[in-house]
């Protein structure tokens, strides 16, 4: 066995505020640029890395030992959905960890994390004090950062994360149908960068899912329910989607369910405002409370923007609230079957406590 | 919160024993704290007097009484509590609570069981109910067959097919359980198991599967969180208490992790837990197949570990939930801003390693398996697995320096040693790697996951690189040095690998590396355990050191206002909860005196490693290197080395050499008392008598010395070399045999031989002095004659049978010694007394094992006084009257021989007890009765089997035999004893040895008095077999004539119904 440092290039992460974190490359050897965000989950790196919501971001894992169980299959099943991953591609710009494990051990593992990263041309650094980095991001907020490698030219451009429409980059190009059947209820899924497990959670509940591009005008379609997916970046870049949702709400009372970016887009369509969090919620342990009850749930989250609860119109109300910082975790219409959550009930990765929300949605159809 | 609960009874777990140790002091202390915060009156029953929970202010009323249904009911009658907590005192409290529920006591006195209800407890404890309950929600369990006879056991095993695992129901820590490959093995194990439990379970073995645990919390609103999951390094087949355990799991994918998490929550909801619960799984390494092994509906060793591993105070939260709180109403005690409803995110890895003390026992098997044998554990924290593991292996404290660079292990058959693991398992793996075994080969032989083995291989490779660098005698590169430090190598390991130990010596070699790496700016950084992986700032200072980082989490004030207390490390035979108590008292006093209290300790079963008992907790090594690292960062006012037992005491001189301010008695004085030659010379100079002794380096010298002093002699081999126990030899044959077996006599490793004085009383002198003058003291008297280790002896305090002159002389000598060594702080002297002839055995300039006992009986906190003295405050001598007590305290020892298959359950000069109790009574008889019942003895109702040793011992036990006969107990005696009893007019039945075993198996005797003839316990005799059988069949056994006499006299004179039920505060 060879040890990492003997044959790995030195690499560093340089933040916009000038801070430098040194380490060694274990991914593709090139420079890159992205918004640096941290995730405190202790498992689930393959799921996170293929989660389209991370588009344009450099992911920092606070749990130091990463790569232990390798990477499972990247295949797509007969149902057209990735078997184990959350999409067909790695979406993060780069991965930053403290102690990459070059030996992996799991019966489902098909390759090492390093090999997978290299195959997909994604840079990665190990040996970084990710705790110190996280503290910095916590205090100063998420910021842009660059991965630079020794003896490798810096080929990064400038980027303003908030102004890029990442949704456009990760959404599908044309409608795709899953679980097609004449007798099934039909759900239109607006793909802003949907995670595979959302599709799995819907199809296993015996509905037909029509996945449409983010800017597709679905209002003319015949459907039983509308689903608005998660996705990356600033919700303000999805003006078109918001318009479509607003139109749908004006013309029909069909059930609507949104997740993550879907929560923000639904809120915007309803007339509320969205703001950027200092450093976001990215973890498997976010506590939320169902408003007005003693029911609390541990949720999986991955978002940098949140709904400003105060700006909700009168016919809407908060549905869930974050128990750590009080931020909004979901909204619902007071009379109509429209609701959305900021967290990820489909989990993958993370706790599965709120998967029942899909049942709630299906019941409404 | 429920508002009808004003007074709550909490059951403790009693004496520390294998499978039930200090973790319950921690759980109970937290629960009491939670209750106190709510203004609830607390009543605690726990005879374990050395615990923190039985300290002043911990509970409103503390009863030092046995945790048995009988005594608990009597306390209930007196106290009339509104509620009872059963989940904080281990299996002892749980079993007791179930009995009180079943016999209607709880209902009769209208006591509400707080937290998880008894029905739920029974659903998880009774195997059949458990399987049925989990079947209801479609959760897989290990299908086992509950059987109630050996015949049924055989049939069940045949149905399931061998290998099978056999477990006793309602037993703690896998007691009486094991694997059976065939019917012969099954027969042996089944009989033992039936002795402990009427129900035995037979199940198919899943050896080789992963073992995973989840700690789950649920409130009465049905909100659930899993606080932590843990993975065993060893696959199924090795009890989780015997395995290295890591948190969080390392080889589970997200799917695996959340599948098991989801099932755990489903179980906890279905069973109806309110509070804390542990779910154990077997998990197939090649699929997602799983089995639930067991569910513990109470705080456990694992939950204590999970609390320390995550910073989530499980016991505290569980207690609050029992009172009706919701998780959303409680705060995360680390951030103090976010709620307790969350799941900790770790940004480090934790490694728990068991500590065994098997070399202390004669005849015990070193193999580890499905029954627990370890006596303690350590927890190491790192940011790489390698770092955590190597730290942990040093913490174990048995002379190991980490995974590599240890003393060469001789293993005859490595393959066999890998297949049949012993307490040396990890070092066998190290050796195998050193000689070239591959990860795959090791995996085949051990079934340990390749991931763990590869990480170990990383350490081995670094070691090889270091060795190579040492051979080339080139300067070590900063690169390699950093790599080694990041993998947890100590400076000493690096020095040894580079060959510096040979050229410079061990300490100078290590210090050279220290200097070198400081020059290269390779230093450890301090990180916080904050439960949220830095997402929110932590308000507490729960810290560890790592080389895998670039910055400290905390800022140092550099105002010299902190005082560092060195903790006592892993619980082991000879050092356990008593030193935790001492440490906690020191911390509290330091705070009271206006300093910041800083603790260094690494034992997850303790209260001293609770981050709220001090201002800063370094959960880290107590090695010279690490203590120095911390002191350099803290720059404290001083360091206290005298409240943590021998580990800190041994560091005193080395720290002093680095100009570290040691508070209290000087390091030089400590050395003068520790160094046998120096101390002996001092006593001679002071004309204080001591048993004659010599350190001898040849067999001839030993014989010459023995010829002069005469037999018997006490022989202490060099520990470093043999690891063997000391022994008393009564004649030349015994001496020769012992030297041949256990001691390798040489110049480097001399054997210490001392004259052994028979029938002498042994006396403990515990005291605190200031500038050489004694401020407070306590004199304790052993019930047994000298020859029983002071840690195993039964101690009465104040002394009941000492001559006034003896006491006067002891006080005088103690004053002289305190003066001569200029003691400032706690100390202990052990004396031998025979006819007012006083000899000093040893002197320790630190708190001793008996400090909490005498302090609590006296109601005077010696450690508080000592700490104030060490901080340079003046203290007044308490008035003389305080030493006048009108009650008696008895400290009795708890043995765990039933856990240690094959061990000879006999008392000797080396310590074998794992715990102790201390009970108070109006007189000796009452106190001894309470104490003996507390350590598991029962008053015989049927018959007693006697074989009472040599003629002197026979005479000594004659009165006892008479008392037993007077109680209409049938006396059975072996040949010599029978004749002696008959000659003295005592009716008895003569039994041959074979018949004796049948009597035991038929449970016709419920007490065995078996006193070995001679003082060495090497031979496998009939006596050994009777003793062992008694232990295996759970029949009370007495092996010491003096103790037998005291106990029998006590229960003959005092009826237990007449025992007063008084709490500590009432004495």
Could you name the key traits of this structure?
heterodimer; A: 365 residues; alpha/beta; 7-stranded mixed beta barrel; 32% strand; globular; B: 1067 residues; 7-stranded antiparallel sheet; 38 strands
Question: Can you describe this structure?
Answer:
The complex is a heterodimer of chains A (about 375) and B (about 1050). Chain A is about 20% helix and about 30% strand. Chain A has 9 helices and 19 strands. Chain A has helices at about 5, 45-50, 115-120, 130-140, 165-170, 195-205, 240-250, 260-270, 355-365, and strands spanning about 10-15, 20-25, 30-40, 55-60, 65, 95, 100, 125, 145-150, 175-180, 185-190, 205-215, 225-230, 255-260, 275-290, 295-310, 315-320, 330-335, 340. Chain A has a 10-stranded mixed β-sheet with strand order 10-12-11-13-14-19-18-17-15-16, sandwiched between helices. Chain A has a 7-stranded mixed beta barrel with strand order 1-2-8-6-4-3-9. In chain A, helix 7 (about 240-250) packs across helix 8. Chain A starts with a helix and ends with a helix. Chain B is of the alpha/beta class. Chain B has 38 helices and 38 strands. A 7-stranded antiparallel β-sheet of chain B has the order 14-13-10-11-12-15-16, sandwiched between helices. Chain B has a 7-stranded antiparallel β-sheet with strand order 31-30-27-28-29-32-33, sandwiched between helices. The two termini of chain B are about 35 Å apart. The mean pLDDT of chain B is about 95. At the A-B interface, helix 4 and strand 15 of A face helix 9 and helix 16 of B.
What oligomeric assembly is this protein in?
heterodimer
What is the helix content of chain A? 10-25%
Q: How far apart, in Å, are the first and last alpha carbons of chain B?
A: 34 Å
The helix count of chain B comes to: 38
How does the overall form of chain B come out from the CA principal axes?
globular
% residues in beta strands of chain B: 15-25%
- Low-pLDDT runs of 5+ residues of chain B are none
- Share of residues in helices of chain B: 25-40%
């Amino acid at each position: 066995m060879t040890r990492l440092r003997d044959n790995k290039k030195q690499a560093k992460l340089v933040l916009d505020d000038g801070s430098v974190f040194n380490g060694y490359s274990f991914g593709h050897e090139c420079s890159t640029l992205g918004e640096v965000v941290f995730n405190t989950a202790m498992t689930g790196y393959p799921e996170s890395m293929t989660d389209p919501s991370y588009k344009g971001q450099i992911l920092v894992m606070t749990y130091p030992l990463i790569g232990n169980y390798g990477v499972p299959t990247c295949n797509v099943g007969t149902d057209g959905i990735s078997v184990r991953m959350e999409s067909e591609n790695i979406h993060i710009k780069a991965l930053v960890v403290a102690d990459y494990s070059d030996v992996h051990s799991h019966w489902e593992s098909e390759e090492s994390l390093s090999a997978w990263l290299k195959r997909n041309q994604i840079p990665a650094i190990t040996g970084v004090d990710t705790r110190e980095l996280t503290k910095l991001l916590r205090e100063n907020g998420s910021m842009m950062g660059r991965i630079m490698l020794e003896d490798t030219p810096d080929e990064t451009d400038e980027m303003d994360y908030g102004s890029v429409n990442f949704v456009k980059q990760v959404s599908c190009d044309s409608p795709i149908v899953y679980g097609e059947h004449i007798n099934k209820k039909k759900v239109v899924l607006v793909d802003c960068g949907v995670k595979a497990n959302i599709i799995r959670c819907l199809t296993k509940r015996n509905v037909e899912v029509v996945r449409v591009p983010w800017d597709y005008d679905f209002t003319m379609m015949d459907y039983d329910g509308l689903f608005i997916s998660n996705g990356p970046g600033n919700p303000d870049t999805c003006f078109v989607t918001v318009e479509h949702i607003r139109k749908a709400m004006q013309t029909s009372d069909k059930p609507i369910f949104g997740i993550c970016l879907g929560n923000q887009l639904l809120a915007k369509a309803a007339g509320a405002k969205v703001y950027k969090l200092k450093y976001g919620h990215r973890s498997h342990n976010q506590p939320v409370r169902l408003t007005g009850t003693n029911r609390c749930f541990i949720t999986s989250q991955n978002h940098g923007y949140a709904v400003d609860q105060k700006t909700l119109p009168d016919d809407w109300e908060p549905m869930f609230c974050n128990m750590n910082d009080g931020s909004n975790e979901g909204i619902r219409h007071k009379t109509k079957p429209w609701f959305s959550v900021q967290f990820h009930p489909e989990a993958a990765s993370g706790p599965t406590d709120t998967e029942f929300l899909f049942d709630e949605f299906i019941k409404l159809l | 919160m429920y508002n009808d609960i004003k007074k709550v009874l909490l059951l403790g777990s009693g004496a520390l024993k294998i499978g039930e140790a200090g973790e319950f002091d921690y759980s109970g202390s937290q629960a009491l704290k939670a209750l106190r915060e709510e203004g609830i009156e607390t009543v605690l029953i726990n005879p374990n007097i050395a615990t923190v929970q039985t300290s002043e202010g911990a509970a409103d009323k503390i009863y030092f009484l046995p945790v048995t249904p009988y005594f608990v009911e009597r306390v209930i009658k007196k106290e009339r509590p509104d509620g009872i907590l059963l989940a904080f005192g281990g299996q002892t409290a749980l079993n007791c609570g179930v009995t009180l529920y079943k016999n209607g006591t709880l209902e009769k006195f209208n006591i509400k069981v707080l937290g998880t209800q008894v029905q739920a407890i029974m659903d998880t404890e009774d195997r059949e109910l458990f399987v049925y309950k989990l079947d209801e929600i479609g959760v897989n369990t290990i299908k086992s067959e509950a059987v109630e006879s050996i015949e049924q056991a055989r049939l069940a095993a045949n149905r399931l097919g061998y290998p099978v695992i056999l477990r006793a129901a309602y037993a703690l820590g896998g007691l009486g359980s094991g694997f059976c490959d065939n019917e012969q093995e099954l027969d042996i194990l089944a009989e033992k198991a039936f002795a402990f439990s009427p129900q035995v379970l037979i199940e198919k073995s899943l050896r080789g599967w992963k073992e995973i645990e989840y700690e789950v919390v649920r409130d009465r609103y049905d909100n659930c969180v899993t606080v932590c999951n843990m993975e065993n390094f060893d696959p199924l087949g090795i009890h989780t208490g015997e395995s290295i355990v890591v948190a969080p799991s390392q080889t589970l994918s997200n799917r695996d992790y959340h599948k098991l998490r989801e099932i755990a929550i489903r179980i906890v909801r279905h069973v109806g837990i309110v509070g804390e619960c542990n779910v154990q799984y077997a998990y197939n390494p090649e699929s997602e197949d799983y089995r639930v092994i067991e569910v513990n509906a109470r705080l456990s060793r694992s939950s204590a570990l999970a609390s320390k591993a995550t910073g989530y105070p499980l016991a505290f939260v569980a207690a609050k939930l029992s009172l009706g709180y919701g998780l959303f109403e409680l705060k995360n005690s680390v951030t103090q801003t976010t709620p307790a409803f969350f799941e900790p995110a770790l940004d480090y890895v934790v490694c728990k390693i068991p500590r065994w003390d098997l070399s202390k026992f004669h005849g015990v098997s070193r193999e580890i398996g499905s029954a627990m044998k370890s006596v303690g554990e350590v927890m190491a924290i790192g940011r790489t697995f390698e770092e955590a593991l190597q730290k942990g292996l040093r913490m174990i404290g048995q002379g190991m320096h980490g995974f590599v660079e240890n003393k060469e292990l001789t293993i005859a058959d490595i393959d066999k040693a890998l297949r049949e693991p012993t307490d040396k398992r990890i070092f066998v793996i190290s050796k195998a790697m050193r000689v070239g075994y591959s990860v795959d080969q090791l995996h085949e032989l051990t079934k340990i996951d390749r991931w763990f083995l590869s990480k170990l291989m990383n350490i081995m490779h670094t070691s090889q690189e270091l060795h190579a660098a040492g051979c080339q005698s080139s300067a070590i590169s900063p690169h390699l040095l950093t790599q080694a430090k990041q993998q947890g190598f100590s400076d000493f390991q690096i020095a040894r690998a580079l060959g510096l130990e040979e050229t410079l010596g061990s300490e100078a070699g290590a210090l050279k590396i220290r200097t070198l790496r400081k020059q290269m700016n390779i230093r450890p950084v301090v990180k916080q355990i904050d439960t949220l992986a830095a997402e929110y700032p932590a308000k507490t200072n729960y810290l560890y050191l790592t080389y895998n980082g670039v910055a400290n989490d905390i800022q140092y004030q550099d105002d010299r206002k902190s005082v560092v207390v060195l903790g006592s490390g892993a619980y082991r035979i000879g050092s356990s909860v008593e030193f935790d108590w001492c440490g906690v008292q020191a911390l509290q006093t330091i705070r009271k005196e206006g300093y910041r209290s800083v603790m260094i300790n690494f034992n997850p079963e303790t209260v001293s490693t609770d981050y709220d008992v001090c201002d800063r907790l370094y959960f880290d090594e107590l090695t010279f290197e690490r203590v120095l690292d911390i002191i350099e960062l803290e720059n404290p006012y001083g360091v206290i080395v005298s409240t943590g037992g021998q580990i800190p005491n041994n560091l005193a001189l080395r720290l002093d050499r680095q100009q570290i301010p040691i508070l209290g008695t000087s390091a030089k004085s400590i050395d003068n008392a520790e160094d046998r030659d120096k101390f002996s010379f001092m006593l001679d100079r002071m004309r204080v008598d001591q048993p004659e002794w010599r350190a001898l380096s040849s067999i001839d010298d030993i014989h010459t010395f023995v010829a002069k002093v005469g037999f018997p002699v006490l022989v202490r081999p060099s520990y470093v070399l043999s690891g063997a126990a000391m022994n008393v030899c009564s004649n030349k044959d015994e001496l020769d045999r012992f030297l041949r077996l256990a001691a390798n006599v040489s110049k480097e490793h001399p054997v210490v031989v001392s004259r052994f004085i028979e029938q002498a009383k042994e006396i403990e002198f515990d005291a605190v002095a200031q500038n050489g003058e004694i401020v407070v003291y306590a004199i304790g008297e052993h019930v047994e004659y000298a020859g029983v280790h002071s840690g195993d002896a039964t101690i009465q305090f104040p002394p009941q049978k000492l001559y006034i002159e003896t006491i006067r002389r002891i006080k005088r000598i103690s004053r002289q010694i305190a003066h001569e060594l200029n003691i400032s702080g706690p100390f202990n002297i052990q004396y031998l007394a025979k006819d007012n002839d006083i000899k000093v055995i040893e002197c320790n300039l630190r708190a001793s094992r008996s400090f909490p006992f005498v302090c609590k009986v006296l109601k005077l906190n010696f450690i508080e006084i000592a700490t104030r003295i060490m901080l340079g405050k003046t203290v007044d001598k308490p008035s003389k009257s305080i030493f006048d007590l009108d009650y008696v305290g008895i400290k009795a020892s708890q043995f765990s021989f039933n856990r240690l298959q094959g061990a000879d359950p006999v008392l000797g000069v080396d310590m074998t007890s794992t715990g102790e109790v201390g009970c108070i009574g109006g007189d000796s008889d009452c106190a001894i009765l309470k104490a003996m019942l507390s350590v598991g003895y029962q008053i015989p109702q049927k018959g007693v089997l006697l074989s009472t040793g040599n003629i002197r011992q026979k005479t000594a036990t004659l009165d006892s035999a008479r008392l037993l006969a007077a109680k209409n107990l049938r006396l059975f005696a072996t040949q010599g004893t029978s004749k002696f009893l008959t000659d003295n007019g005592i009716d008895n039945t003569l039994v041959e040895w074979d018949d004796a075993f049948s009597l035991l198996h038929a449970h016709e005797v419920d007490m065995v008095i078996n006193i070995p003839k001679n003082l060495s316990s090497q031979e496998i005799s009939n006596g050994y077999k009777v003793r062992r059988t008694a232990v295996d069949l759970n029949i009370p056994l007495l092996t010491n004539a003096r103790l037998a006499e005291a106990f029998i006299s006590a229960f003959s004179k005092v009826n237990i119904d007449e025992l007063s039920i008084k709490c500590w505060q009432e004495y």
